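Below sits the subject:

***
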Amino acid sequence: MDLERGSSATSSLHPACFWLVMVAPTNSLERALVLLETIEQSPTGLTTAESSRLLHIPKSTCSYILIRLERKGYLVRDGDTGRYRIGLTTVALAHGALRDMGLRSLGEPALYKLASDTGLSANIGVLERGRVLLVDRVESSGFVKGIMDVADRPSTIGRCGRNASKASGIRCREERDIGRELRADASAMGKVLLAYLPNPEFQSLIESYDLSRLTAHVSMDDLMREFATIRKQGYASTYGEYEQGICAIAAPIVDTSGAVRAAVSINGYLTEADWKESSELIEMVKAASRDISRRAGFAHDVTPN
């Protein structure tokens, strides 16, 4: 695979997906799993030929796996383009995983209250394979009003992209979906989850998922100092670091041992709240994190690393 040539198959992939295709999977199970993950990260799906090139496996082998994944509903194939996309069976599996996690049902009351009190969107995320997985989200009242305004203007429905989002004040569906992955190093929830990781787990995470960008512009000592500050104050914040114009504040959700297992956050455009005077917002987020922890029977305080 020549990544420098920017083929149509690789250029449309999410950056987090490149590590999947750098090393060819060696058996059928690995190949099927990597195919699913690679296709999931490709907005337009992939053809058999593209998948074969990305995974460095024979086209006949790739076709065999794709067809069987399609039969089981893990993939669907567009009859006109021949491109494979993620099927609904994976959605059912994901729903089961989120249900069994329990955070959605336990956190829902706190999320609705947080969104109502702040006027901002409220979220819960967990650390998964070096990235933050969004497991629940409640939209702000401003978002609801904005989407209703869009509904009254049919010509704007379906438009996405940063320019369209900023013009309408509404973030794209792809930017809000439950199951969306966020960069751990640049999101408020990610910073909280990384800050509370025991050092051996943090080092293992960097090595396993090539999070070298964490120390690309700051030293490890500076990073550890930032994490220490987050632990001391009990929250993390971002101001346009992950996405231009988007601000966020996050606090940890802890388990019965006092270890951090998830994070709760608020986020929104810079114009949606007085982020410069954010002390009240911070306290609301921290209160929500304590509420969710209590509802789950978790501890009140975080155990130091």
